[in-house]
From TrEMBL:
One GO molecular-function entry: carbamate kinase activity
SUPFAM superfamilies: Carbamate kinase-like
InterPro entries in UniProt: AceGlu_kinase-like_sf, Asp/Glu/Uridylate_kinase, Carb_kinase
Protein name in UniProt: Carbamate kinase
Amino acid sequence: MQRKKIVVALGHRALGNTLPEQQTAAKRTAKSLADLVEAGADIAITHSNAPQVGMIHTAMNEFQKAHTDYTVAPMSVCSAMSQGYIGYDIQNALREELLRRGIYKPVATVLTQVTVDPYDEAFHQPSKIIGRILNREEADLEEAKGNYVTPVEGGYRRIVAAPKPVDIIELDTIRLMLDAGQIVIAGGGGGIPVLEQNEALKGASAVIEKDLLSGLLAEKLHADELLILTSVEHVSLAYESGNPTPLGRLTVTEAEQYMEQGQFEAGTMLPKIEASVSFLKKGGKRAVITSIDKAREGYLGRTGTIIE
């Protein structure tokens, strides 16, 4: 049986919020990932990091307040930290699950940097909320440093840009590992956003939408399939209504029409559809969006929203 090369994007449900939740969730998610390997897939794994990177950012800022001789950790460093410890839990849980099934495949995490365009309009319209609630004095201090804040219930919170991914710095390493039959975890949280400055890479104060990065990675790897695992078995029209309509098989044209109609919520399902459409228009064969516990059935074309 010819094996397929697929990029698997894990959503928030695959990881939980806290350290104990993450370890438990990673073990559960590992079973679904191992099912894919048994079904004939060579997989590159991406994952969400929203709660984790926020926790790290808050912790590092609070530490700096208590120890003024330390500097605040920039967002790029927080992103790198989240990639490391999330990858650690996923790779160990998946290695354990595969060995239980008599499968030996190396599993490793690649800290992944992703270039963004410094002129991306997102830098002028930050939208991603991070960190804890701030009081007015703390918010003023953030703004004095050139950061953005937004009013929320109980105070203010910092917001950062969400630029589109342009290129993947460690792509050759990821491709080499995948072509060697290894399982690679990469592009966690959308990657560490960096700006190219001649030979140097400078971390950007931003976060990248992980679904868009997943689509870009699938495109760059010439993957057969993009499999986006989330909390629902199907994408639905009128999801917030009392009578949502689940979508089965779609063409790219149909998916684009639904996007134009505003059928998908920004920040949740819309980037998943955008990533799928972009991947398919650039040579991908199939994109599937389904729930984590239906990963194998989705990969086999038996369930989920399938875009071709």
